Amino acid sequence: MADSELAQQLLQQGEYDDSLRDQTFRFQKKAGQFLVSTSAGQGRAVAKQNSVPLTNEPSVSVAVNWLLGSGTHAQTPLAIQADGTRGIEMRWSSFHGDGKLNVTPDHDEYDSFRAGTLECFGRPMDAMDVRSCIGCHSTVVPPPPLPLTSQTMIANVGCERCHGPRKKHVVLAERGLPEQIKPMIDQHDAGAHMETCSACHRDERSVSPDSTAAERARFQPYGLKKSECYLQSSGELTCSTCHDPHDTTSHDRGQYIQQCQSCHQPQASAICPEEPSGDCIECHMPLTPWTQGIAFHDHWIRIVAGTASHESKTDLEASP
Ligand code: HEC
Ligand code: HEC
Ligand code: HEC
Ligand code: HEC
Ligand code: HEC
Ligand code: HEC
């Protein structure tokens, strides 16, 4: 965190006021650490059970040592104890890369918090929370009791996370024999491919019965696996049909439409009776708002109610 662009912006800004809590957070850099302080007694504090006592000091600070997310949608700072047993997901995040802070998604339950506990900084995390959170945002996380440090882990999603450990492959490739060792994960096999992506992007196993349409739209494998395009194309359709997993998401609409049309051709497959050369994505993978101006394209490719030209587009909804 300390060396990130966001940290520089916050240091310049100096502080952040959380109007929902009537609380001020102050930022400082000391001995290479990014420190956040707040007055622990402040705010609309209420008694809550299971809170971890922080300290009896009226004003306290924590060192924020992790920053998660590329920033396309958001970046969320974390304060994690090196042994990985506890942490705090900070109350505020930066959205859309503009450096402006706002409340971290799903933190409404901490609008009220118990003064003098970790809650005055955000959501307290136990060892399980810490590992799952970091686990989806990195390549290798060491098993406990190894500490979570830059020496023991590989941050961000790197090659081995999707291709499997390839050391032998690299060794043999250096001897000119790369084909002797195949990748451990065959990314051309649709099932294996979907398993890889689902581990982080999530499928039906992560969807609770009371999930909202917006939550489900956030889980691309969940949607894609329900789509007739996936179910009826005998393993031809994977995430990499439309995305290069080595790059950021393309926003070239024409390219996606071409992908749809590569299968939906006259004679070969069903043709759209509605707008056979229109913007397929707008009607069949509509943008579904989640929170804080973040929206996801629903990857359950289907005929969505309200998208026919004779219907009013204001009824557009993502039915479960
Ligand atoms: C280890 C967890 C993990 C796995 C496995 C994973 N992803 Fe991701 N992916 C992420 C995270 C986290 C982000 C958000 C970007 C970030 O913060 O680094 C992301 C972002 C993306 C994006 C959007 C990039 C952008 O423009 O911001 C695409 C597309 C994507 N992943 C596709 C895939 C595909 C396809 C697979 C399977 C081959 C896959 N991912 C496997 C964690 C993962
Ligand atoms: C099950 C895997 C998983 C877990 C657990 C998880 N994330 Fe993510 N996270 C993802 C994926 C995949 C994305 C990219 C797609 C999206 O934005 O939903 C992402 C996106 C993000 C983004 C936005 C990144 C961008 O590109 O703008 C932030 C910030 C983030 N996660 C923070 C966290 C924090 C903090 C935690 C823990 C408290 C956490 N995540 C737990 C998988 C996970
Ligand atoms: C998010 C998952 C993911 C990550 C991370 C990732 N790859 Fe890939 N990679 C894939 C997928 C999926 C394919 C297959 C693409 C396709 O079907 O066209 C692939 C294909 C390849 C190929 C082409 C060979 C083949 O089997 O088709 C090479 C080479 C490759 N990746 C190297 C790398 C390297 C090097 C890194 C790290 C810098 C990396 N990959 C990181 C998912 C990933
Ligand atoms: C790999 C081939 C493939 C790709 C790529 C593909 N589809 Fe499909 N899709 C199919 C198949 C197969 C079906 C089943 C009906 C049929 O045979 O046409 C289908 C069905 C559909 C249906 C009808 C769904 C239902 O529930 O009745 C829609 C709508 C659709 N596709 C739209 C799209 C759009 C939009 C895209 C691009 C974002 C796309 N498809 C990409 C193969 C594909
Ligand atoms: C203006 C919104 C809109 C656009 C744009 C659009 N569609 Fe459709 N599509 C629909 C609607 C609505 C239906 C259902 C029509 C019906 O059942 O009469 C449909 C039906 C389909 C079907 C099912 C056909 C069948 O016989 O089962 C496919 C496949 C399809 N669209 C593919 C596409 C593709 C590919 C594109 C882009 C080239 C596209 N659509 C663009 C709204 C749209
Ligand atoms: C048929 C084409 C298609 C397939 C297959 C597909 N996507 Fe996408 N995806 C899109 C389109 C279109 C967008 C919107 C791109 C844009 O912003 O213009 C998108 C956007 C995304 C984003 C950015 C967040 C969002 O919703 O806008 C992520 C992450 C992502 N896809 C992940 C995946 C994963 C993981 C898979 C496999 C389970 C997958 N996609 C399969 C077409 C596809």
From TrEMBL:
Keyword Signal recorded: yes
UniProt KW Signal keyword: yes
InterPro entries (alphabetical): Cyt_c-552/4, Multihaem_cyt_sf, Multiheme_Cytochr_ET
Keywords: Signal
Pfam families: Cytochrome_C554
Domain annotation Cytochrome c-552/4: ranges: 129-164
First and last residue of the signal peptide: none
Protein name: Heme-binding protein
Organism annotation: Rhodopirellula bahusiensis
